[in-house]
Design goal:
With 262 residues, the chain is mainly β. The chain has helices at 41-46, 160-163, and strands at 2-8, 13-21, 24-36, 54-65, 86-98, 101-113, 116-126, 129-138, 143-155, 170-182, 185-198, 203-214, 217-227, 230-239, 257-261.
Amino acid sequence: EFRRVLFRSARTTIAIKGHINNNAPKNLTIKTNSFNTTESKFFQKYLPASLKPFAGKLNLNLNIFSSIATPLKPNFKSTKWLKDYQLKINMQLLNGLFQNQVYKEFSLNADLKNNLLKIKKADIKHHNSHILFHGNLTNNFKKLNLTISQGSFLDLSEFSTLLAPYGNFAGTAFFDGKISGFPKNLDFDLNLNLQNFKSNYLFFNSISGNISQNNQKLNLSSFQLSQNNDIYELNASLNLAPLQNKTTAPKLNKLDYKISLE
């Protein structure tokens, strides 16, 4: 048992206090201030390769509780070792980098119990973007059930690195709704309002409506597209299943789709 251990450098502070028995934390609090994740060899060593390159200054308040915990042996390829622990997490990552995408701030308030991560509140901020969401992660943190709050908005040009595989985009997206499932097969139901949208080949003054996907069926409902003085009303549905795991694109007459454009 120890009351407090303090590590301090010119730019970083790490404070640890609580109780550890045979390398098993029973009640432990870890706090960091301006912890540089880039310079930490320990942090980078255990960080999954899928998240790299990763950088930022971390402010953290982490509480770890357990009555039956075995010695703490982190394995970041699985979360099964966390089943004996309860965590309370308050964190803020400033001037971050994630897979070469920069952002000003990511903040998280969450609890972990029985391998269920309950996100009470999370924010992603950049200069002209602010995404707010809450929800939970299960199945080794790979299954999502998230709600994006009203008031979220995204400057598409600020996140060009993440969007690059899909094209070049500009404009401001205001959106809210729900996202669930696994990353490779997500279901979602989003209300969308795009202003001054530009892509490689298209420009619209505004695009608004509901976009959803459920069991690989994509739906556009009450979509309104405005271009100069023209306004188009669009409703459409497309079964995405024939497009999955195909080495060649299916013929148009083999697709299951409906389009109504006025």
